[in-house]
Amino acid sequence: MAAVGAAALVLPAAPAIAADTEDPAAGPQSRLVLTMTPGLHSPGSEYTLECRPPGGTHPDAVGACAKLSAAGGDFDKLVPTGAMGCQGLHDPVTVSARGTWLGGEVAWSETFGNSCEAITATNFVFRF
Fold first, then answer.
1. DSSP of the chain, one letter per residue?
2. Which of 42, 56, 65, 87 has the greatest number of CB atoms lying within 10 Å of its CB?
3. Can you give the pTM of this predicted structure?
């Protein structure tokens, strides 16, 4: 009976150990610099985003990494969200990402009519 109890104690620890194997030594990390240029009515900003494990200065690194992972690291494949009602304000901003994603080089940018459009078109990855 004691052997069954010991086995039960070991099993719950196994998934936690497996999840921790995604450390920097287990594979390439992703490191990106995300930038939004200032518009006439919106300030510019720049944040770092690290994935595997999530980190950097991005205010929602976990969420941004999850969304980029779902898009295979391709910013053009981020699923836009209509969760915010963007006003028709013309205040162009350019968002860009540069760095590496799972070992591959990333150099992406796109211009939007305003910061709200940039945020929703990139599924909140540039919401900072």
1. -HHHHHHHHHHHHHHHHHHTT-SGGGS--EEEEEEE---SSS--EEEEEEETTTBSS-TTHHHHHHHHHHTTT-GGG------S--------EEEEEEEEETTEEEEEEEEESSHHHHHHHTTTTT--
2. 65
3. 0.75
pLDDT digits (tens, 9 = 90+) for 16-37: 333 334 454 555 589 999 999 9
What are the pLDDT digits (tens) for 58-100?
A: 999 999 999 999 999 999 999 998 756 787 888 999 999 999 9
Beta carbons within 8 Å of 125's beta carbon, 6+ residues apart: 34, 64, 67, 68, 75, 78
> Burial level of 26, CB count in 10 A (0-12/13-18/19+)?
exposed
